[in-house]
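hey can u run this one w/ pyridoxal-5'-phosphate bound, need the structure tokens asap thx
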Amino acid sequence: MAKINDNFLKLPGSYLFSTVAKKTRAYMEAHPDKKVIKMSIGDVTRPIVPAVTEAMHKAVDEMATAKGFHGYGPEQGYDFLRSKIVEKDYKARGINIAADEVFVSDGAKSDCGNIGDIFSTDNKVAVCDPVYPVYVDTNAMAGRAGDFKGERWTNLVYMPCLEENGFLPEIPKEKVDIIYLCFPNNPIGVAATKEQLKPWVDYARENGAVILYDSAYEAFISDTAVPHSIYEIEGAKECAVEFRSFSKTAGFTGTRCAYTVMPHELKIDGTELNALWNRRQCTKFNGVPYVIQKAAEAVYSEEGYKQTRESIAYYLENARIIREGLAKAGFAVYGGVNAPYIWTKTPDGLGSWEFFDKLLKNAQVVTTPGAGFGPSGEGYIRLTSFNTREATKEAIDRIQKLV
Ligand code: PLP
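ok here u go:
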């Protein structure tokens, strides 16, 4: 008789966004006259820029010709895109990455999840709390997380990110093998400086640990002290994998293109992780469509870069409006400078869900309760800058009036 992977049965229902959607729907049905503003959107809303869609159209036309047709591409990505990534995202910042260390993929989400394939289930895994849930759930599916008891997995090491530590994780007391770090991060929206990242690289090198560094929000960095890549830290190529994505950088959430960097120096017991990841990708992945990779390449063109930066600036201005508007209303506000997310402490000791309900009912503003990202998120809500300028201003205005 076939047996299922019963680790899946241990997973708690992913109730955060479905509960947010359910509560929002119920409110809207009961109050059809009220205009609800969604500040919980985790997806970009601005269109893909013209320079990129033009490249996409051109690639579609090529596909309609015998000469320009492309079937299966290289599993690791086309050289034209890998070399652009190397040149523009790394070399331009003084980082030496080779094209064969870059693996183009259909998403940082898939890569962050699939990376577990190349690690033993015996590894001790550390995650931030609160955290992007993919790191936790994929380790649970692989049987690396133990059992879900109370609000935590028994075999994961949680690194609380709290007001008192500036929302930056501290190196765990117990020895860990794999460490997920995400900067600028989701959900808090804070970034780490080189000085703050260095101890992690030192720890990983001293203990033979691997850092899985999610840099999906790199494009939002506006502070010059914040590194854009973990490889800006000396020695990181020996101990870190980096995930990047075109999703938030260039509006590719629906188009799907990302990449993972696996330096050759990164070895466990003499085995290069690059070779294992290459083997994994060649076996389980057949590459990102040619048309999409051509579009991603255009993000690095002069016009493509200029236009995508305008979209990022638009979101960052929304983030500023949220941050400053909430601070003016007396809220403790974090994030939103180097990230599209703003993390706000609930007033009067209200729980995350209580404050969520209050904002929905009394201001018709939808947020995301912090508790949904992990136990240390209790007492906070997350707002995003992905709505329009007009809706963002109105939402903040309503919250200010409410309090
Ligand atoms: N990593 C983080 C921290 C995210 O918040 C997200 C999406 O919200 C992703 C990765 C997913 O990126 P992609 O669209 O490339 O799968």
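The radius of gyration is 21 Å. anyway lmk if its weird
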